[in-house]
């Protein structure tokens, strides 16, 4: 399984750092939604789903967390701990987010607006979904 991580360009000077993210440039799709999660309680695992069509880039803009990725055949664990790195997650990838540091802010850039119908929340259904496409 290929893990696609983007290294964003910090525009630093003696005042500090600034990162700018533009759709179709730094982010490989039109950004229709941005959301972020914070104050995640210790031991919490979020996610437990895949999507039918959504593409996303995850950036841990503060603190750190880990992402478990599963394409139905292989799994990978990815650590996000720098505000200048982004993890691309395609629709057909089961994801779980965990090991959030108490100060973690996980920001997500999404290709579509929120749509509960796009979620696959049952793991067996997800495996059938990806196998149909192979
Ligand atoms: C994903 C991972 C990385 C909204 O009303 N609008 C939104 O845009 C989102 C994302 C969520 N919500 C509501 C729906 C739930 O009542 O916020 C609540 C928590 O959402 P959810 O349990 O889906 O959150 P996570 O952290 O399990 O998953 C989220 C995204 O939903 C999902 O698309 O890929 O982050």
Written overview of the protein:
With 134 residues, the chain is mainly beta. The protein has one helix spanning 123-133, and strands at 4-7, 33-37, 46-51, 56-62, 65-70, 75-80, 85-89, 94-98, 105-110, 119-120. A five-stranded antiparallel sheet has the order 1-7-4-9-2, with no helix packed on it. Strands 6-5-8-3-10 form a five-stranded antiparallel sheet. DTDP-4-keto-6-deoxyglucose is lined by residues 33, 35, 37, 46-47, 56, 95, 97, 108, 114.
Low-confidence stretches: none
**SS content category:** mainly beta
Helix proportion: under 10%
Overall mean pLDDT stands at 97
Number of strands: 10
Associated small molecules: dTDP-4-keto-6-deoxyglucose
Q: Could you state the order of secondary-structure elements as H and E?
A: EEEEEEEEEEH
What is the end-to-end distance? 14 Å
The rough form would be described as globular
C-alpha Rg (nearest Å) = 15 Å
The gist of it:
The chain is mainly β and 134 residues long. It has one helix and ten strands. It has one helix at residues 123-133, and strands at residues 4-7, 33-37, 46-51, 56-62, 65-70, 75-80, 85-89, 94-98, 105-110, 119-120.
Task: Note the main attributes of this structure.
single chain, globular, binds dTDP-4-keto-6-deoxyglucose, 8% helix, 1 helix, mainly beta
List the helices and strands and how they pair.
Blueprint: E1 4-7, E2 33-37, E3 46-51, E4 56-62, E5 65-70, E6 75-80, E7 85-89, E8 94-98, E9 105-110, E10 119-120, H1 123-133
The chain binds dTDP-4-keto-6-deoxyglucose.
DTDP-4-keto-6-deoxyglucose is lined by residues 33, 35, 37, 46-47, 56, 95, 97, 108, 114.
């Amino acid at each position: 399984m290929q893990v696609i991580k983007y290294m964003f360009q910090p525009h630093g000077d003696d005042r500090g750092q600034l990162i700018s993210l533009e759709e179709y440039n730094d982010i490989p799709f039109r950004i229709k939604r941005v959301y972020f999660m914070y104050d995640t309680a210790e031991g919490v695992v979020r996610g437990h789903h895949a999507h039918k069509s959504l593409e996303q880039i995850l950036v841990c803009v503060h603190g750190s967390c880990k992402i478990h990725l599963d394409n139905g055949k292989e799994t990978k664990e990815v650590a996000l701990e720098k505000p200048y790195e982004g993890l691309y997650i395609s629709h057909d990838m089961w994801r779980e987010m965990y090991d959030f540091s108490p100060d973690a802010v996980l920001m997500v850039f999404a290709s579509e607006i929120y749509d509960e119908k796009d979620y696959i929340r049952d793991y067996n259904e997800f495996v059938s979904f990806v196998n149909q496409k192979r």
